[in-house]
Amino acid sequence: MGNHGATRQQVLQIDLGRFDAVRARRPKRLPVVLAPDEVAAVLAHVDGGEDVFRLMAWLLYGCGLRLMECCHLRVKDIELSHGQIVVRGRKGNKDQVVMLPRSVRADLERQLEWRRRLHERDLARGVARVELPDALERKYPRAAQELGWQFVFASRQLSRCPRPRHLRPLPRTRGVAAGRARAGAAGLGQQALDHRQGPRARRPAVCLSGPACTGC
Question: Of 28, 39, 64, 80, whose CB has the highest number of CB atoms within 10 Å?
């Protein structure tokens, strides 16, 4: 403040005196956390994509995934035998292993089987290709056609972009938004919905394995 004050005094040629400014403090607010029955109400009302959006919403809450982390899941990242998911490129560009709730394993197995059949059809048509991270496509030219590198939540339609079967987040976001609207109509507080429906909810407010869970 001293240097700036001297500069102003030289320019204005007046004595401004001493500035004792008081900085405003950001108020501390407690986060609004949904109760277990409220989380279940939101998830129960998510629809669209032949229940794919509902599965993605359950993974967001049960595994603490961000939206794009869920959209970018690849087949090889799902480890059903170990009950876990490998999330690539999280904060600090680090990989992280998260536990997979038992209640979504059956739906996830069906999604993986559908993805396998879709990949076989794409191979037969000569359109089975996916974007690879970093420089892997140059190092492993055939990896883009392998099932393990395909996105789990693939689009039903092909596109001209480098990721032919990549699911854009917009339809899934609309599905969750519709679930929020229905849950709000059912009596859920709008303040809670606005604060906790984002993909950055790191910890689920309800165990998705049900009351018989012995630990996720």
Answer: 39
